[in-house]
Amino acid sequence: MYSDCFVLSTVVVLNEETGKKEDKTEMVNLTANIPQFRCFLAAEAARVYCGSDRAWLLSGEDKCWGPLLMHGKQVTLAGTARNSYMSGELVVRTGGIAFLPEFGLPVKIPKAKMRAMELYDGDKANELAVLVITATPCIVANIPLSLRNENNLLFIAFRPKTNAYRALFNQVASTTHKLASLSTQQQEVYDHLVDCLLGAKSVQEANPRFFSSLNLNWHLHRNPILSCHLDVIMGSISSEKSFRKPLKTHEKVLVTIVTGIPASNKETVAKCIVEFSSENTRWVVYSGTKHVLPSTGLHFSIKKCQDFLTSAVRSHHSTIDGKALQVLLLLPDLTDICTVVRTIEGHPEPAVAAALAIGSVTTAVDPAATFLCNRVVVPSFPEVLASGWVNVIVITNTSATAPVKLVSRLLHEICPLASQIFADGGRLSESKDLDVILSEAVFSETCNLQARYFSRPDWRGGSRISADIGQAAETGVISASIHW
Predict the structure, then answer these.
(1) Residue 293 Ramachandran class (φ > 0 left, ψ -120 to 50 alpha, else beta)
(2) Distance CA 330, CA 258 (A)
(3) At CB < 8 A and 24+ separation, what contacts does 113-119 make?
């Protein structure tokens, strides 16, 4: 009995232009490399016959078959149909060849019944070698049904670095015509044999795109993804690259996000970023830490942030001072980065959303303020530092009393994709550290985009975000722009 096993994956893709949802479906056959034809001999008489036939083939010189030239194991006999191959041993004599399969009767082809027997090895060392045999129609009855074809072609494959491979070239190759190239049909069979015999790949390795789709399906369920992100998270673009093209001067307004845990000196980190950045950059800083909603206990206002971004983009378009505009969002402690990202990328005004690009997200952490008691971390600590959402972690306390090594190791486990910078008191001084924080593309790298989809599948639903968190509790108008 033979059965095929299939695995199906479906990913819902949201087309930004049409607004329609499309299903991207892929299927893999788990038994694709398993031969679909097997002959198992159960009768005792047949087993006795096979044993005696094998002993006769390996015996001394025979008048009809001539002296023994080679005997090799780990050889494969194949036809032209895909997956029609069998493993076994090969016996070559001057008068013909005999293939002894693991299961079934020997396949014996006398030399007189061959139109041609040619050798092909791709003209390369340690490549799969094949004997291409063209048999006469009268010998078809000796060939297993699964290997028969209209051209009467048989392929005997030898894997490199085996005894049979060495015996082939030492004892048989000198008396066999060598092919310089194969026909189209023969080349297809050869390539398939290379994949099956030399690949030795798992199903996952042989189908990386499918398993990317399956992994995505497992995490996303029925949450749609943007069509422009599909190739990125499926692995078509290298994980070391950004799916977004490098920004040109004045093309977009780059947004740098800075947040942290309580008592982490994130304000000092933000101040250093602005002070030590390029002179050709004009900074506008949004201080979300001054937006406190007392009745709700929430500290981030979506509406005020979006209003500020609208003002910044419009002022940038009306300015001709030749400087690039960058926005720094200084957020309250333990702010949910996903909410901030959706606030920026889901701006209710499409023109403003298209003009903004998130460069990087930096989180400040004080190891001395990380734990409450008994190594219990502060609330929301793992969520705020989730992989893919944070690109740079600034450790702002390197004193001997702080558990720096412990926290650094913990942060690496929580957020392995983020870079760690040690800056006592949040005072950044190294130019290379500022280069990482002010990156234009680290937030958009493929690995970070994949991690965001896997941790928060619903973060890009395609809808604009204009609702304000705790809007009813807000009172007064507070200035959001600070210049150092």
Answers:
(1) beta
(2) 5
(3) 113/138, 113/139, 115/152, 116/177, 117/176, 117/177, 118/176, 118/177, 118/178, 118/179, 119/168, 119/172, 119/173, 119/176, 119/177, 119/178, 119/179
DSSP, res 412: H
Is residue 355 within 8 A of residue 250, CB to CB? The reply is: no
pLDDT recorded at residue 465? 53
pLDDT at 251: 67
Cα distance between residue 325 and residue 306, in whole Å? 17
- pLDDT, position 360: 92
- CA–CA dist 391, 167 (Å, integer): 57
Chunked mean pLDDT (size 10), the chain, 484 residues = 68 78 74 55 53 68 77 89 81 88 80 89 80 88 82 90 89 86 88 77 54 69 75 64 53 88 91 82 79 50 89 75 82 88 89 90 92 81 87 91 90 91 89 86 87 81 47 32 32
**Surface-to-core class of residue 78, CB atoms within 10 Å of its CB (0-12 exposed, 13-18 middle, 19+ buried):** buried
Q: How far is CA 472 from CA 293, 294, 303, in A?
A: 9, 11, 11
User: Diameter of the chain by CA atoms?
Assistant: 109
Number of continuous H segments (helices) and E segments (strands) in the chain: 14, 18
- Helix H or strand E encompassing 71: strand 68-78
